[in-house]
Design goal:
The longest helix has 19 residues. It is built from ten helices and nine strands. The two termini are 18 Å apart.
């Protein structure tokens, strides 16, 4: 179970409509939404991995401390949600080092995992995995083995693998289901809100029981917040992707927590490999 800790105004889809200079003056909702998620997890004794922006951690240190206090894993989502495709190797290294340092200083824990903004590591920038390994990360969960207009590496392995020769560093891709010669996304996000819940449950059962693999689910704090400020001037595609079925998301998460067993990335994947 994973949570990408970012606020509604930081999503990649809003890059062209919300400037970073506005971030500190917009209404912040990530703290309350993440506490709500932590409460849900506590009620059901679920442990998760929180891939957190350094920008968020700086402003909400008590939230970081609660994540650790509740027994969850803290991982890195970069500093301010810049897609890796928009960075040079030097810029990327600076970003992840800055974010990792903030998270480790606030938590007092080693931060070992990383997830790229919008799954923006793929065939054209695999150098990013080398940077992560050099900077002390032990795993990434940044590659989505699907074909998508904004991200994806459809030819990537579907399950945990070692992408760097002679290194113990691991890539743990987001869960997909194989149909013919294509991978169907089933690991969370907008796909989870678009599909009927029964389809997502069936897909995870297939991955667990037929392929004998653990699945990864991801979502964002803003996805359980249908009352978030609505943005104007968005394309139909962007508006649909962001706002579709937000009012159903919390109940679907509750069902997912009840229907499957969940734990942190580290406990599920790294201790077993």
């Amino acid at each position: 179970m994973t949570v990408d800790v970012e606020d509604y105004f930081q999503v990649s889809a809003f890059e062209s409509s919300i400037d970073k200079s506005q971030w500190d003056i917009l209404p912040h909702r990530v703290e309350a939404n993440t506490h709500k998620i932590l409460d849900l997890f506590a009620e059901r004794d679920v442990k998760a991995t929180f891939f957190t922006l350094g920008w968020i951690a700086e402003r909400y240190p008590e939230l970081i401390k609660r994540i650790i206090r509740d027994g969850h894993e803290l991982a890195c989502h970069g500093y301010e949600h810049i897609r890796v495709t928009e960075q040079t190797p030097v810029q990327f290294r600076k970003d992840v080092v800055r974010a990792k340092q903030i998270l480790q200083e606030l938590s007092g824990k080693s931060v070992n995992g990383y997830r790229a903004a919008s799954y923006s590591i793929g065939a054209e920038n695999l150098w990013a995995l080398d940077v992560l390994q050099e900077e002390g990360f032990t795993y990434s969960s940044s590659i989505y083995p699907v074909k998508h207009d904004l991200y994806g590496m459809p030819d990537a392995p579907r399950f945990i693998y070692r992408p760097i020769a002679n290194a113990d560093f691991k890539e743990i891709p987001i869960t997909t289901l194989r149909f013919g010669n294509k991978n169907m996304p089933c690991g969370g996000g907008g796909f989870f809100r678009f599909y009927p819940y029964a389809l997502s449950k069936w897909a995870f059962n297939r991955v667990n029981k037929n392929e004998h693999q653990a699945g990864i689910f991801y979502f964002h704090p803003w996805e359980i917040d249908p009352e978030q400020p609505k943005q104007t001037g968005l394309s139909l595609k962007t508006r649909t992707r962001h706002y579709l079925n937000l009012h159903k998301m919390e109940n679907r998460i509750k069902r997912l927590l009840a229907d499957f067993n969940w734990d942190t990335m580290e406990n599920v994947f790294l201790k077993a490999h």
